[in-house]
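SUBJECT: A protein chain and its fold
Encoding: whole-number codes for local backbone shapes
RECORD BEGINS BELOW THIS LINE
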Amino acid sequence: MLDRAGINAGPLVALSLLDQQLVMELDAVEAEVITLARQLAPCMTIIDERRGRKIAQQVYGLQVKGSAGILRDCRRVPGCG
């Protein structure tokens, strides 16, 4: 399992900025990703958990993919795999 410090190596969103609904519905990492994506929008948000993707899309209107979707799309690119 990944160490929390390893996950948090990049730019982080202060927990005080997180939407409290996100914190109640999702784990802390998914809540951070959605909060950061809202600040950086428009951007592609990568979330593997189905519930996290659904909330990001339906509640916040973010463009979301899971890692499987990214790999599927990559197969369509010539020379990618």
Q: What stands out?
A: The longest helix spans residues 28-40.
